[in-house]
Amino acid sequence: MSKEDYYKVNKTMSKDKELNKEEESLKENLEETIDQAIDEVEGENDTKDAKEEKEELSETDKLKQEVEKEKDKFLRLFAEFENYKRRTSKERVELFKTAGQDVMVSMLPVLDDFDRALKEIEKSDDENLFKGVELISNKLRETLKNKGLEPMAVKAGDKFDADLHEAITQIPAPEKKLKGKIVDVVEKGYTLGEKIIRYPKVVTGK
């Protein structure tokens, strides 16, 4: 091999080495660029996922708030409905009581008539008549009792109470112990349930 050929071969090899270096450099630059692009894409995806997750959480919070509002509204409506039921139920009971009271009050004179009739018949000798009228009277009283009507237990000698008795007159007490007390019961009093529908009319001693 001549010197000239040797130089040519060396020059060619040098050029090949330079080309290889350039290729490696380009390859490294390309790989670096690709890695950067991948990192950027992954970063964007992570940001997007985080944003979507945040939006999803925010939407969940909104839904929770709406549910709480609806729950509160439902509880308020339920409370109002319960109050309405109690109120109407109470009004209905009061209506029935009032209607029943009117009937009971209208029956009281009939009971008074039975009391007077029994006192008069008792003076006669007709025992069967007395028993018959007494039987009817007791049956009527028992029927009214089942509806809540009760006679008030008031008798001579009881202490007079203006909240429970109606004094129609006052007379000198026949006995010292009857001063300020009931001397006689002129008309019976009656209660319907816990309510007094007619106060007993009494005579008091002074």
UniProtKB/TrEMBL annotation:
Family affiliation: Belongs to the GrpE family.
Q: Which HAMAP family match?
A: GrpE (MF_01151)
Q: Where in the cell is it found?
A: Cytoplasm
Assembly state and interactors? Homodimer.
- Note down the stretches annotated as region Disordered: 1-63
In UniProt terms, what function does this protein have? Answer: Participates actively in the response to hyperosmotic and heat shock by preventing the aggregation of stress-denatured proteins, in association with DnaK and GrpE. It is the nucleotide exchange factor for DnaK and may function as a thermosensor. Unfolded proteins bind initially to DnaJ; upon interaction with the DnaJ-bound protein, DnaK hydrolyzes its bound ATP, resulting in the formation of a stable complex. GrpE releases ADP from DnaK; ATP binding to DnaK triggers the release of the substrate protein, thus completing the reaction cycle.
Offer one Pfam family short name for this entry: GrpE
Give the main localization category: cytoplasm
- The source's domain of life comes to Bacteria
Question: Which InterPro entries would you find in this protein's record?
Answer: GrpE (IPR000740), GrpE_CC (IPR013805), GrpE_head (IPR009012)
The biased composition feature labelled Basic and acidic residues covers 1-30, 45-63
Q: Where is the composition biased (Acidic residues)?
A: 31-44
Q: Which UniProt keywords apply?
A: Chaperone, Cytoplasm, Stress response
Please report the name of this protein according to its UniProt entry. Protein GrpE
* Gene this chain is encoded by: grpE
